[in-house]
Amino acid sequence: MPDVVLACHRLCKQFQQGGQSLTVLQDLDLAIHAGEKVAIIGVSGSGKTTLLNLLGGLDSPSSGSVEVQGQRLDRLSDRQQDQLRNHSLGFVYQFHHLLGEFTAQENVAMPLIIAGVPFAQCLARAGQLLCQVGLAARLDHKPAQLSGGERQRVAIARALVNNPACVLMDEPTGNLDRQTAAAIHALIRELNASLQLCFVLVTHDIQLASSMDRVLELKDGKLRPWQAGA
Question: From the CB of residue 16, how many other CB atoms can be counted at a distance below 10 Å?
C-alpha cells in the first residue's frame, strides 16, 4: 500500500450555537495515500470546508487527531505546525486570493519569498510552474489582466511552489464556467500523473468528483463511499 500522506483518526468538531453544542463532524477516519485523488461531496452546510480546514491544520478538532506525513499536528508546536503545513501541503480555494498589485509570477513566488529563499530562485521556480500550468505568456500579467480560469491556474501553481505532498482544494471550479472548469479538471489530472501529487478536493461538481480515484460523501457528520445514482 502506498505511503499515507494525510490522515485523521476519530476526528470530531463541535461548535457552540445559541448555548447548545452543534456536532458537525463525528468520529471520522480517513487516510489519503501518495498519488491519490479524493473528492469529498455533500450538501451545503454538511461540514466539507470544516473538514478540509482540519486536515490542513487551519483549525483544531474538538477531539481526534490529524497526521501529515506521519506527524500528529496536536503534538507539534505552532511553529512546527506552520513549517509542516508550508512544506507538505498546498491550498487552493474557490476564490483565488491572489494579490492584485503583484504579477502572476510574483504571486506564485510569494510563499518562497516569505520563506527567505533567494529572490531570483523564487522567480525561477514560479516561472517554471506557470509554464507547467499553461501560462508561459502570462508571467508579467497582474490578476486583473487574467481570466477566471487563468487566475485559478496561478493559484494552483502557487499551491505547488513548495513541492507539497498533497494539495487541498475547496471548490476549485465553483466560480468558473463549464468550459473553463473542464480545463481545470484536466490540469488536476495532468499534475497528479506528472508529479504524483495527491489531491483532496471538496466540490459540488459531480463531473469533477467522478474523475477522482475515490468519491466520499459527508453526511450527518460522517464520511461514506459515494455511488452515482445511490
Answer: 8
Global pTM value = 0.89
Residue 21 to residue 42: CA distance in whole angstroms:
22
**Is 54 part of a structural domain of the chain?**
yes
Asked whether residue 217 is assigned to any structural domain, the reply reads yes
Is the Cα torsion angle 90, 96, 101, 105 positive or negative in sign?
positive
How many domains does the structure of the chain reveal? 1
Closest-CA residue to 153 (of 168, 175, 133): 133
230 assigned to some structural domain? no
Angle between helices 178-195 and 148-160 (to 10 degrees): 20
Whether the CB-CB separation of 216 and 225 falls below 8 Å is answered with yes
Task: Give 117-139 pLDDT, tens digit per residue.
Answer: 999 999 999 999 999 888 999 99
CA 73 to each of CA 8, 27, 102, 160: distance values in angstroms, whole numbers, following the listed order: 10, 17, 33, 21
- What CATH number has the domain bearing residue 136? 3.40.50.300
Query: Rounded to whole angstroms, how far apart are CA atoms 4 and 68?
Result: 8
